[in-house]
Amino acid sequence: MAPPPLNKILLTLTTILACSRGASPSADGGTDDRVVAVDPRAAVCPASDAATAPVTYLQMQQIFDDNCVSCHDVDGGLVLTAPHSWSDLVNQPAPDPDTCGGILVAPGNASGSYLYEKLSSASPCYGTQMPMGEFFPDPLPACVIAMVEAWIAEGAPAPVADGGGD
C-alpha cells in the first residue's frame, strides 16, 4: 500500500489544527471559524500604541532568553545570557567561521550587523538563519525581528545599572 500523498497529509494536519482551536468571536457578534495562528514568541512585542517607544536592552535580553540561550550559553561560544550578552555582541567581530567581514552588532547600523542578518535573512552569508529549531531554522516573528532592528538602529543601548535605593 502506497503512503498517502503529501497534500492529503497537509490537509489532515490543517484540519486537526483548525478543529483544535475552535471558533472565536467575530466583530459582528457571530463566530469566526478562521484559524489565526499566533506565534507565542511574539508576546514580547509591544502593543501597537507602544510600538514607537525605544527598545530596551531588557527587552532584547528577554528575546535572547526566550529564543537563543538554549544554545548560546556559557558553553556555546557566543554567550547571550545576562549579563554577558551586551558585551559579547556590541562592536564585536563575528566569530570564525562566521566572519563574513562583519560585526555582530554595529550600533546604529542594523543592516551592517551580523546578528540582524542571521535573524532576518533566510540565507545569511554563512550558515543558516537563526534561531534553529530541532532540525531546521525557526524564524522569529516579524515583530521580534523589527525589535532587534530598532534596538540596533537606536544605538544598541546598554543595560541600565540599577540605581539602588536601599
Strand content: under 5%
Task: Determine Rg (CA atoms, Å).
Answer: 20 Å
Q: How many β-strand runs?
A: 2
The total count of helices amounts to 5
The biggest beta sheet reads: 2 strands, antiparallel
Q: How would you describe this structure to a colleague?
A:
The protein is an all-alpha fold and 166 residues long. It contains five helices and two strands; from the N terminus they run αββαααα. It has helices at 6-21, 57-67, 85-89, 114-120, 142-153; strands at residues 24-25, 31-32. The protein has a two-stranded antiparallel sheet. The longest helix has 16 residues, at 6-21. The chain is globular and about 55 Å long. The N and C termini lie far apart (73 Å).
Topology:
Elements lengths: L5 H16 L2 E2 L5 E2 L24 H11 L17 H5 L24 H7 L21 H12 L13
Antiparallel strand pairs: 1-2
Structural descriptors:
mainly alpha; globular; 166 residues; single chain
Gist of the model:
The chain has 166 residues and is mostly helical. It has helices spanning 6-21, 57-67, 85-89, 114-120, 142-153; strands at 24-25, 31-32. The protein has a two-stranded antiparallel ribbon.
